[in-house]
Write a structure and sequence with these properties.
Layout (H helix, E strand, L loop, with lengths): L1 H37 L17 H12 L1 H4 L11 E4 L7 E6 L4 E6 L15 E6 L8 E2 L1 E3 L9 E9 L4 E8 L6 E8 L3 E8 L7 E6 L5 E5 L6 H9 L5 E6 L4 E8 L2 E6 L5 E6 L4 E7 L5 E8 L3 E7 L6 E6 L2 H5 L9 E7 L7 E8 L7 E7 L2 E6 L5 E4 L2
Parallel strand pairs: 6-10
Antiparallel strand pairs: 1-25, 2-3, 3-4, 4-5, 7-8, 8-9, 9-10, 11-12, 12-13, 13-14, 15-16, 16-17, 17-18, 19-20, 20-21, 21-22, 23-24, 24-25
């Protein structure tokens, strides 16, 4: 099954690249035409008059060098920096997102299948729970009840919300059945049950990557693409167009809370609920926003991290940000088991100060852990999840 998956991925990657370059050429031609209509003497973009189907191959290297190598950190090699870790039992096909409650209860989303990423299992995605206070935490599969099609369940980003009125726990899960985008809301019933309450879809929630819950039925969500079309969105990202946004959803209104972002991915909230953090993955930075009236987000700053950081977890005691990152985006997309994508965990201390401290806490070249996406700390332990590989539990002390 692994060899078949790799062959399918290679064929798909070449097809995607061709479509990407062709679409990029169409965007380029349209922009040049617009410029020429504005002024007959205006110089075309970079002096290139137009792209045609026959010129796609000849401009391939130019396009990749201009828009991909630096953005994808394609030449970056990562020295190993390990912790005392062990693999989590029962997690074989990725734990793309992990979140931990204050009482040590951790939720994991597993089995994600997403555009242009390897997948080594045909089974639907699953949700797990584990107790971080246990001497050797072990993930236990959650039983999902309610009217949800589990055969197409494809979980991505997750967020937990605890209702202070009665301590009820609600789990928000981004779901991609048939590669669509929707958000599922569950009620967690101890010890191992999720009761499905609601499926949320909306035209503005067209390519949701992650969510952060701010109420029993309200949340912020990142759209990691400018359009629902994968190829067109990839082209706009490679061309550097910051056209993506963060959407605020409540039963009463749905609207953009922040926009002008190149590639928003993970999202989370500060312990005091005042600030929202968004990973601009292709911009190699974490954007900091302040929540304002009517749930609008005011941009404050961006903190450079030097890596392609995916999900964000926040230490509930210190407020430190922990990031699961991809050190080399090219290795992730053009998957080669002989030269696998690495994993990296980055920590940001004092993010609201004038001099935030950015440090690397874990690094691997892909031979222990491939394609890390999340790093969730809790009381001296650290959980590291991945897109399609395994997951680690590490000791920080």
């Amino acid at each position: 099954m692994r060899q078949n998956s790799e062959v399918r991925l290679q064929r798909f990657s070449m097809s995607t690249l061709t479509h990407l370059l062709t679409t990029s050429g169409q965007i380029w031609n349209a922009r040049n035409k617009q410029l020429q209509n504005q002024s007959k003497t205006m110089t075309p973009l970079f002096g290139i008059q137009s792209f045609s189907h026959t010129s796609v191959c000849s401009v391939c290297c130019v396009m990749l060098n201009l828009f991909c190598r630096e953005m994808c950190l394609a030449s970056r090699e990562l020295p190993v920096k390990h912790l005392n870790c062990h693999y989590l039992k029962n997690i074989e096909y990725g734990a793309e997102d992990i979140t931990v409650l204050r009482d040590g209860l951790a939720f994991l989303s597993t089995g994600l299948k997403i555009f242009n990423m390897p997948s080594f299992s045909d089974e639907p995605g699953k949700m797990y729970v584990m107790d971080m206070l246990h001497p050797r935490p072990t993930p236990v599969q959650l039983q999902i009840k309610g009217e949800l099609d589990l055969s197409s369940f494809n979980p991505h980003g997750i967020s937990a919300y605890v209702d202070e009125a009665d301590d009820s726990v609600y789990l928000f899960v981004v779901n991609h059945p048939q590669q669509k985008s929707q958000v599922e809301i569950f009620h967690f019933v101890p010890e191992n049950t999720l009761v499905h309450l609601k499926t949320i879809t909306h035209p503005l929630l067209h390519s949701v990557n992650d969510v952060v819950a701010v109420g029993v039925e309200s949340f912020y969500a990142t759209n990691h693409q400018a359009f629902a079309n994968d190829v067109l969105s990839a082209a706009t990202t490679l061309l550097g167009f910051s056209w993506c946004d963060v959407i605020y959803y409540s039963p009463n209104e749905v609207r953009a809370a922040a926009d002008g972002i190149l590639s928003p991915n993970g999202i989370n909230i500060s312990p005091d609920k005042r600030y929202i953090y968004v990973s601009n993955i292709m911009g190699h930075a974490i954007n900091v926003y302040e929540r304002k009236e009517e749930e609008q987000l005011q941009y404050l700053k961006a903190v450079a991290v030097g890596s392609l950081c995916d999900n964000i977890e926040v230490d509930h005691r210190t407020g430190d940000l922990w990031l699961g990152c991809h050190p080399n985006g090219k290795k992730l997309v053009m998957f080669d088991p002989e030269d696998p994508p690495g994993s990296e965990v980055i920590r940001i201390k004092n993010i609201h100060s004038d001099q935030p401290v950015v440090s690397q806490e874990y690094a691997d070249n892909g031979h222990v852990l491939m394609a890390s996406t999340v790093a969730a700390p809790y009381e001296g332990k650290l959980l590291i999840g991945t897109v399609f590989h395994k997951a680690l539990c590490c000791n920080l002390k």
